[in-house]
Task: structure prediction
Amino acid sequence: MIETHQLTLRAGARLLVERLNWRAAAGECWCVIGPNGAGKSTLLRTLAGLRAPDGGSVSLAGKPLAQWPLPALARERAWLAQSRGDAFAYRVIETVLMARHPYHADRYWEGSDDHAAAEAALRTLDVLHLAQRDVRTLSGGERQRVAIAALLAQDTPLLLLDEPANALDLAHQVAMTDLLARLCRDEGRAVVSVGHDLNQAWSGATHALLLHGDGQWRAGPVREVMRAELLGACLGHPISVIEHGGRTIFLPAAPAALNELPFRRAQ
Amino acid sequence: MSSIAATSPVRRRATLALLGACALLALAGAGLAGSVAVPLADLPRAFASLLAGSPDGMAATLLDLRLGRASSAFVTGASLALAGVMMQALVRNPLADPYVLGVSAGAAVGALAALLFGAALWLVDGGALLGAVAVSLLLYLLARRDLGGGRGGAPGGESSVLLLTGVVLASACMALVTLMLSVAPESRLRGMVFWMIGDLAGTSWRLLPWLVLAGALLLARRQARALNVMALHADAAVTLGVNVAALRRFLFVCSGLLTACAVTTGGSIGFVGLVVPHACRHAFGPDHRILLPGAALAGGAFLVLADTLARTVLAPQQLPVGVLTSLIGVPVFLFQLHQLHLRPR
Result:
């Protein structure tokens, strides 16, 4: 579905990702893991076509991103921003209906099919009761769920989500992980999401991409990549993997000495 | 239709019809009101002679004068309100307005410079356009960083940077206007002061502003849905298939053109582009598909009403309409500025 070839990403002079050769196929749920500033969001923005690669190329369905017409591209991939700023008093339902924009360049008003899609998306994210609310009055978690509902209403085979679990409470985090896994498994979509919770990544994702932030990366099925030593090297802190009641749990190891912690080291 | 439908088609049409009726009513009121009243009974005959092209008789002459002025007021108000809506969507800030951000002042500088050098009349229009577009371009370059949105920064901070930039640009332009006024020959001074205040006295029928307004409204309506997406998502509108760069260029040129036309007709009349879209958003919501035509109609009606008030309230003394709109606009602006900061996030 989406494929990178020798993709290099930089932020200023800093090298983030070097020569990334990677592909996500339909039905795969990818989780991007890495420390702060490792280029996770930059990678996602590049995959979405919001930003040009600093080297190499990204292609969707075999065609380089730059060659896609914008509306056609918008029917293929959806992107969830890390955060939002709302300047106007749009209602929740209006923001979700706007995600139907790529489907009717020639229509002035939405049709009943758009309303059906929007309603289904709002119901999936458990925010249908908020449909008539001003988005600026929502709480952070509610706004996040509405934004994800809009993404579903866009109805694309590829979903790119930058920290979808942001501001969600525990129950909704679990529901969100389950939702993304279902989208891949049952509907054959491809999902690439950035997240910091290793346990959610393990339970939802089929594949993981580790970004070290210095150009190094590692990609593969979760069982091969989400191993204690690899995660520890990537995140800069030892990780313990514990088997408990048939479940795998990731825990940050207790620091052997307090001065190993980043805040301590900096002092 | 589902229970969560945004706005019913009937309501949309009713809204626009109501606004159209208000606009017609305001125009009729402007024709009748004044120091000499036109009796209702004389109206049909006066209208007939007006349409025949030869206004004869007291009533017809009065009607001709007043309707000419009212039509200028309407097209100016509609252009300013439309430009306001466009600029607000462009910078994603409900406080943007051609007057507050100095675009009107830029147009005044351009027009005055053309006048000062004794340019032909069409060059004055060109100068106004150049000034308006130059200021909005400068504003865009200076505030570009804040346009992206979605970065999660405090919206209050963004507004302040943008507004301060605009206010400073406006005062720079006003300084230039004052400079040109002070070196201008005494005899032409009185006519030039009009650029600073905004006055519709002595205007008459002109075709050009109507053409610009109609063209801008038609083009903007085609972009109305893309405007919604951009107002909500800023740069991320690209991922929904909106060509954000092209849309921004269109909005800059279009709002600059509208402002320039308004300024060459009536001087820099303040706050219409702020008050009218604010009221319209409050009444009909922020959907640009209704907001664009709605604000144009309401802006026209508002300025016709304001101008009629300005020439009747202290009759026979005539106030410049810019004074009146500023008196209304400043409290609305302050109220909105504080709303922006008070909003819970």
Summary: The CA atoms of residues 72 and 206 of chain B lie 7 Å apart.
